[in-house]
Amino acid sequence: MSLFLQIDLPAILTGTLAAICCAMLGNFLLLRRQSLLGDAISHTVLPGIVVGFLIFGTRSAGPMLLGAIAAALVAAVLIELVKRYGKLEPGAAMGVVFSVMFALGVVLMEKAAARSVDLDAECVLYGQLEDVLWLGPQTIGDLLDPGMWPGFPREALTLLIITVIVALAIVLFFKELRITAFDPELATSLGIHSGAVHFVTTALVAIAAVASFEAVGSILVVAMLVCPAATARMFTDRLATQVVLSVVFAMIAGIGGYVLGAFGPMWVGLEHSLSAAGMMTVVAGVLMGLAIVFAPNHGVLAKRWRAVSLSAAIAREDLLAMLYRLEENDAGVALTRGNIRGALGGGAPPRLAIRRVVKRSEISFQPAGAELTDAGRTVAQRLVRTHRLWETYLVSELGLRPDHVHATAEQLEHVTSDEMASELRERTTGATDPHGKPIPD
Amino acid sequence: MIASLAPTSMQWPTLGEILRVLIFSAGFNSAVVVVGALLLGAAAGTIGTFTLLRKRALMSDALAHSTLPGVAIGFLIAAAIGALEYKLPILLGGAAVTGVLGVLTVQAIAATGRLKIDAAIGATLSVYFGVGVVLLSYIQSIDVGGQGGINAFIFGQTAAMLTGDAIALGAAAVLSAILVAMLFKEFRLICFDQEFAMAQGWPVVRIDLAMMTIVVIVTVIGLQAVGLILVVALIIIPPATARLWTDRLWRMACLSAFFGAISGYFGASMSALLTDTPAGAVIVLTAGGIYLVSLFLAPRRGVIAGVVRRIMLRRSIARQHTLRALFEVVESGDPQQHTASISDLLHRRAWRQAQLNRSLRSLRRSGLLELTDKRIKLTDEGFASAQRVTRNHRLWEEYLVTFADIAPSHVDHAADLVEHVLDANLIKQLESQLQREGRLPIPSVHPIGSTEGGAR
């Protein structure tokens, strides 16, 4: 127990807090299509940290935080300038700025490292989550003992404070953030300074990124700025819901990632734990992948299903109308399931359509082939009636040529309501369509 | 405090050393490395030209980050089959495979429509990199030698390149340059007009695939030299620099290759000279420096050229304002005396004395007016110019009043702004109208736009 409290709990706390505070901000970047700003900022923070360190000579959070925020804001300004004066698209402008600043950071860091200073680029990339310790609590009860609190890890405390600040900022300025995210022009016309909102968001991203770096590394920061918000976006159209969901996904990624990284390897018989920050990223990515495929409304499968289902609804109507016309002509053609599928174009929709008409007993399959039931005939009759009414209308009212109207009527018959059909009846005369076929009642 | 910025243990190279490295005579290995970096820069610059124009610049960032799991898997495979001495091709092969997977992932996410390309790139590069980090932490936990090289893929380690690596790198760079040259026409087509290319029946998807393949080759060979975080810089910055200098594609591709080569050459040389200076970063900083200089100095597209252009335009407008004010003073006075006083002019417009004096001096230098005893006298040429400017202005004013339903109180302000972009054809249509009102300056014998006040 004391091992868990001293090693695992602080690491989980730190990782999850970092994930949450990045995920909250990520929502607004996502909507403004600036997700890569997080990527750019997390790269540019490197020179900021190193310069902050070189100037103040300490590894304490304050100076490095200052340097990093300054660097992030410099980067944001530079990106704008390069975009404007270099006439580059935003992505390329970011690429120019962040890669040069990162390169500068690497060079500065090597210089600092040459003076045997404990700063290295890999730590910035991967973080040192495993080094976040709370040496003190032995039992659950100790967590509530104020005497233990001074030993609470600094990284977790910093992140806790920043997460609270970010959450407060989002709650207090939710209206402003939302309106600038969706419609900056409208925001400006309502008297909201969208430039200032953008600036503050950028600054908050920078602060969150910097506070997270030491513990979880830049790669987790980038992932958490994008993945949880993107995952939440797959589930909802409401911004408030999206923010809340993104926090939930960030927590799942934080806790789940740590558990998989720290304990997962032991379950499969490995001796050493794996990178927890990396694993959190992986979990966030897997959640996002699952959401993209399985999300109820916007997911790939749901969309695919809607398309197939709509095609099947149309195929069902075509099938019923086809059988009605065969009956009408007394053609004596025996339709099997196979040639129905062929006649309707093949693939999944006709198969689904056949299943639906059989289930609703609109068609019964006899040895002599498919036959309409009474229920099916009623539906089919209505469809054929609509079709022929449209053909009549198109010829008599719009003056189209009789051999040109079938395809149009074929499309319109699927979207015509009963009221519309009776209106068509009122506006047309005659008991037959332009091709001489009777219009059913 | 600031003093601590100065490196304490830095060894500055002597001039002779610098020269020796720059002319490739500082030992065979360093020469090979420098040439390798040079070729890499050239190849990246060439293909980068097309990805930049295709607005796919950051796609190569996703690609580069996605190579990390491939490197790790490649290492595990090499360790499993006991081929660690020859691990490089396996690592690079793995890098290429997961890099391509990363690009496909980005495209698949963006194809859903719900999430945009920026989110797709951000998610892909961080998650693939995260997978790589997890695999690396596994590799570190197992007891296998030869792990040192892997981290070099992240930050690059040009100095650790062997002669063979550098030769392979150079060969791949030359190969990709040849491929670009062969597909130049196809690439140009899809960069500038994809719809047209599709309508003409060009295999756009396959051309895109070819472009991405070359990017993969360049990225993978660049991993060792500059590392996977910074290799994207070589694909973005040199073409962005070249774009500032020219509007022609083939020139842009050549310039981009040149800037890339310079960056590679100079960066690798510097890194060979200075201790603790990672080559990849110096190469990128060199490219960034060239970009910064170009941003200011490039003709036409550069910042300085833009500022100069703006100043010239402002001056030309000020001169026209002055001429018009002069004409209006002269018009209301003695028709034989083309003179006015400074105070007359000052009351004509809301302008400062200094401003007015500046344009008066400029007009005098052009021989359009003379200054005598506080009186300003238009020369004949100056009078003709002033006439033209005023005529132009009034025609435009008339146009706005007649055709554009502008409230008359706003006319003068608007006319001041648009007079300088007036289309010469409009003038003729409006002349008769002004003449009827008796406000047309005596019809000019000069063609519109000869010296001052013509259509720009």
Describe the structure.
Chain A has helices at residues 2-31, 35-56, 61-85, 90-114, 121-126, 154-172, 174-182, 184-189, 194-235, 239-262, 264-267, 276-294, 300-329, 337-343, 348-359, 374-396, 406-412, 418-427, and strands at 363-366, 369-372. With 441 residues, chain A is an all-alpha fold. The longest helix of chain A has 42 residues, at 194-235. Chain B is mostly helical and 456 residues long. Helices cover 72% and strands 2% of the residues of chain B. Chain B is built from 19 helices and three strands. In chain B, 48% of the residues are buried. The model of chain B is unreliable at 1-9 and 443-456 (pLDDT under 50). The interface between A and B is large, with 72 and 66 residues.
Short description:
Chain A is mostly helical and about 450 residues long. Chain A has helices at about 1-30, 35-55, 60-85, 90-115, 120-125, 155-170, 175-180, 185-190, 195-235, 240-260, 265, 275-295, 300-330, 335-345, 350-360, 375-395, 405-410, 420-425, and strands at about 365, 370.
Task: Spell out the key features of this protein.
heterodimer; A: 441 residues; mainly alpha; two-stranded antiparallel ribbon; 18 helices; 2 strands; 73% helix; 2% strand; B: 456 residues; three-stranded antiparallel sheet; 19 helices; 3 strands; disordered N terminus
